Every structure is written in C-alpha cells, then in structure tokens.
Amino acid sequence: MKLITAIIQPHALQDVTDSLREYGVTGLTVTEVAGYGRQGGHTEVYRGAEYTIDTIPKIKVEVLALESDESAIIDLILAASRSGRIGDGKIWTTDVGTAVRVRTGERGADAL
C-alpha cells in the first residue's frame, strides 16, 4: 500500500476531490497547511506598512491506496491541480506497512 501526499493550492481542492471520487477513491484526509517552496514568501502592504509573509497557505491531501492505483491517483491529482505557475505544489508517496480499519479491525487492502 502507498500513502499518497499532495500539497496543492487551496482553489484546486474541489477539482482534486471530484476527480478522486470519480476514480473510486473512498476516503482521503484534507489538512490546511502553510509553507513555502521555490517561490518563498512574499511581501504585502497593509495601511502603509510593508511586511513579509514567510509561508503560503496550502492544502495537504492524503490518500491511502493500493500500489496498483498509485500512478493513476498521482496523475489525477496532477491533472486537477496543475496551473503551470510556480507554487502549484508537490506530490509524493510513502510505503505503508499496515493499515487497520479501527471500527472493524480489517487489515491491509480490506481496510481501504
């Protein structure tokens, strides 16, 4: 199994979740996060005072999936969240040893 983690722009969330739902993904986790990549932070002016914002608001989407679905899910997230501008985000995967559905005790692929 794989844990697919994507950091995306907030405005792309609905398109990503719709695409994943259409593919058949039955569960995901969404977290509001903040960070920076190559774009770094930015400066803003408020009432004449300039200040620096070091982190940019993003959304983290996590999907637990079978290894056979990994590439397709990555492609779906990529297509739904790519604008072609800096700051679109990142996607990475992590190997998962065991997954357990707490309610039933099912393990592995049955827990998805």
TrEMBL record:
Modification sites for O-UMP-tyrosine: 51
Quaternary data: Homotrimer.
InterPro entries cross-referenced by the UniProt entry: N-reg_PII (IPR002187), N-reg_PII-like_a/b (IPR011322), N-reg_PII/ATP_PRibTrfase_C (IPR015867), N-reg_PII_urydylation_site (IPR002332)
Gene Ontology biological-process annotations: regulation of nitrogen utilization
Protein name: Nitrogen regulatory protein P-II
Domain of life from the UniProt record: Bacteria
SMART domains tied to this protein: P-II
PROSITE patterns: PII_GLNB_DOM (PS51343), PII_GLNB_UMP (PS00496)
Keyword list, A-Z: Nucleotide-binding, Phosphoprotein, Transcription, Transcription regulation
Pfam families named in the record: P-II
Gene3D superfamilies given in the database record: 3.30.70.120
GO MF terms held by the record: ATP binding; enzyme regulator activity
A cellular-component GO term for this protein: cytosol
Source organism per UniProt: Brachybacterium paraconglomeratum
